[in-house]
């Protein structure tokens, strides 16, 4: 993946210590290839690499104490800039009721899913949304919206189910009658851009005069994302993008192009099929995810949702001071509590990679094994696993009913995570991250 490729590039630089111009040039070549392979638009890649290279070749960077860390910081900054720098809020007109949000995009991009998630998110902000089923082309479309609407407890207006423009117009009246303050208009898409779909979107837009038009873009789509988005931009125009399916393995290739090509902000990221998996898009976080720095803020936020002040304090200590075996165990338990192992693994620095490299995922039986091995360690060993030598390893293996090789594997996993935590820590200590963990 893009993350892996970039991390490999940085690993190579780290191995060198001092960096020469040649080192930077070859790193930039690798980054260029990695971005192109991740389907980032070639013009975007060209500009990105040129700018990043110029900054990295600065004498101050090359002669600094830790040049690689500075290169990583520069790439992070440039990626963040490419993604839009700051969060871009949903703008609704304060004195208009109902507000209207219209979703457009190709078929299968995730509009209907995003509509229900957006409704859920707005409900959480004490709004009363109404979903309007304006995809009248596929018979099952309104049913799908109704099912999703019921899941999040939001009313769905279907009208006659035939005339999309009319359903849209009526939904605004229905919202008023029912005291709803936001209408979310779900529209039809085609597999490819087609004239009829564009015209219908334009007609709906004219009929309901949306406060916001959001284009839903599938992050898994390749190079042609740019064409599709440009086409919509020219015909219906829109205010921002919802990047869907960012939980897949595309990891940002599309997201990296969209902003640069259209100048339109990415407002939300859809990270799964569950109702609560729509997040306000945060460029800094996304850039860190792409660089495999892990999303400590995401983890902390997740932890905040379900757990105590203590967990928050732990997260901060772990990041700033050191990462023990106990931390690793607690993390793994928490991951399971938070659900969606893969999702949270992706946020943890180095975790996903460490797990992938060993060709394994953390399943139930592994979890049991990990717990047994960590419990067989002494307190001292858990605090500072580097003291585990051959003799200790054999003892831990025996005590837990596992092999020394398994203990070693666990140690390697810990080592990898500790190393990753270390690099994030390094960045924060340098004062180069804008926010710090609370
Ligand atoms: P529409 O045709 O644009 O309305 O797309 P849908 O909302 O029906 O979504 C198409 C498919 O993608 C469905 O199977 C959804 O469950 C799935 N999907 C939508 N958003 C996401 C997402 O963020 N992550 C994942 N993994 N799947 C999604
Ligand atoms: Mg749909």
Automatic annotation (TrEMBL):
Domain SRP54-type proteins GTP-binding positions: 265-278
Subcellular location: Cytoplasm
Binding site for GTP: 105-112, 186-190, 244-247
Coiled coil, from the record: none
The keyword Coiled coil is assigned to this record: no
E.C. number(s) listed in UniProt: 3.6.5.4
Domain of life: Bacteria
Catalysis: reaction(s): GTP + H2O = GDP + phosphate + H(+)
Keywords, comma-separated and alphabetical: Cytoplasm, GTP-binding, Hydrolase, Nucleotide-binding, Ribonucleoprotein, RNA-binding, Signal recognition particle
Comment text on domains: Composed of three domains: the N-terminal N domain, which is responsible for interactions with the ribosome, the central G domain, which binds GTP, and the C-terminal M domain, which binds the RNA and the signal sequence of the RNC.
Subunit structure: Part of the signal recognition particle protein translocation system, which is composed of SRP and FtsY.
Role: Involved in targeting and insertion of nascent membrane proteins into the cytoplasmic membrane. Binds to the hydrophobic signal sequence of the ribosome-nascent chain (RNC) as it emerges from the ribosomes. The SRP-RNC complex is then targeted to the cytoplasmic membrane where it interacts with the SRP receptor FtsY.
Family listed: Belongs to the GTP-binding SRP family. SRP54 subfamily.
Protein name listed in UniProt: Signal recognition particle protein
Annotated organism of origin: Olsenella absiana
Lineage, highest ranks first: Bacteria, Bacillati, Actinomycetota, Coriobacteriia, Coriobacteriales
Gene name as annotated: ffh
Residues of the full protein shown: 6 to 443 of 519
